[in-house]
Amino acid sequence: MKIVLPGGTGQVGTILDRALSAAGHEVVVLTRRPRRPQDVAWDGAALGPWAEAVDGADVVVNLAGRSVSCRYTPENLRAMMNSRVDSTRVVGEAIAAARRPPKVWLQMSTATVYAHRFDAANDEATGVIGGTESGVPDYWAYSVEIAKNWERTQAEAPTPDTRKVALRAAMVMSPDRGGVFDVLLRLARLGLGGPVAGGGQYVSWIHDEDFVRAVEFLIAREDVAGAVNLAAPGPLPQREFMRVLRRTWGVPVGLPATRWMAEAGAFALRSDTELLLKSRRVVPGRLRDAGFAFAWPGWEAAAGDLVRRARAARAGPGRLRARVGGG
């Protein structure tokens, strides 16, 4: 198949590019900074010659959007919104203008669309959309609006011959440097991976191999459209999540952090505490109903695999590339 990845140079795009290319697919990456023969230049906002890559493709997986690993200033929040909405709109325009439109358009979204909650898990049928919770910072609602506008832009695109799926993805865990797992593992190794603000908030996650397999599954399943949660079936409280990670690496303790300490740490890392403090208790209702079987449903086994691969990468980077590329 010919698969086009707009915004495919980030962590998730790199994972997909590597795995899909290794599986024998023709992968074209749309990027602002093309470096390889399979990269095509685009600006993520306006139609251009790049749209020719979409015409005749089998699949588009749009991953474009400003990174959420930043301070949630008004300027950065606007950039997050605009980069997601604009890129989704223009991908829809390219598909609508194609003589041979792709059969399926998978659009990245986020599990952050769901409410901050502890009492029950959010699936696609009964989950509570966030934005109106009490006792949380006001700007968390803007993150939900970003996700809602992101999905709405795809849903409203006039592409009648292309099936559309919105990927409400949890944190994708891979040992690649700079990814979320790499950051969490570094904290654990430094003895800083303890409970944050009590640690009761839920962490939803998905192993990178299951993420790739879920994308392949959704490409093949012509009967699935709309929003789909990409999250392992075992979300767990942050304190337990980090306890498993510390134990897997061999670190006996992790210093706890209060809310104000988390704020100070996030400021130093130029990130935001929403990523640490929001309880994302998300489960994969539609994937499981459709028959998808997770290779890594539980965090303990998944963490063990990720740690083994992270150790192998430190021993020799080529071993990591070979392992992930074949997944």
Characterization of the model:
42% of the residues lie in helices and 14% in strands. The protein is built from twelve helices and eleven strands. A seven-stranded parallel β-sheet has the order 3-2-1-4-5-6-10, with helices on both faces. The protein has a two-stranded parallel sheet with strand order 7-9. A two-stranded antiparallel sheet has the order 8-11. Strand 4, helix 3 and strand 5 form a beta-alpha-beta unit. Helix 3 packs parallel to helix 4, helix 5 packs across helix 7 and helix 11 crosses helix 12. The longest helix is centred in the N-terminal third of the chain and has 24 residues. The C terminus is likely disordered.
Outline of this structure?
With 327 residues, the chain is an alpha/beta fold. Helices cover 42% and strands 14% of the residues.
Radius of gyration: 19 Å
Strand order of the largest sheet: 3-2-1-4-5-6-10
Termini, distance in Å? 17 Å
- Approximately what portion of the residues adopt beta-strand conformation? 5-15%
Summarize the biggest pleated sheet. Answer: 7 strands, parallel
**Mean pLDDT metric:** 91
Proportion of residues in helical segments: 40-55%
Number of helices: 12
Order of helices and strands: EHEEHEHEHEEHEEHEEHHHHHH
- According to DSSP, the number of beta strands is 11
User: Which structural class best describes the helix and strand composition?
Assistant: alpha/beta
